[in-house]
Design a protein that fits this description.
By secondary structure, this protein is an all-alpha fold. Helix content is 48%, strand content 0%. The radius of gyration is 16 Å and the shape is elongated.
Length: 54
């Protein structure tokens, strides 16, 4: 199985429903989270998985 993360601005009870909505502050918070994850991934050594196998 592939490890995955579910992340987004809405509450999981509201996702993909008829009355789905989100608060602007939740959207902004999610954008900050996506940005932080991207920055963290860019700082990773691209060979770190190979090093862990050895």
């Amino acid at each position: 199985a592939l490890p995955t993360v579910i992340y987004g601005p809405s509450k999981k009870e509201q996702v993909h429903g008829i009355d789905e909505y989100l608060e602007i502050e939740d959207l902004v918070g999610a954008c900050r989270g996506y940005s932080a994850m991207g920055e963290a991934l860019l700082k990773e050594d691209p060979n770190h998985l190979q090093k862990e196998k050895n």
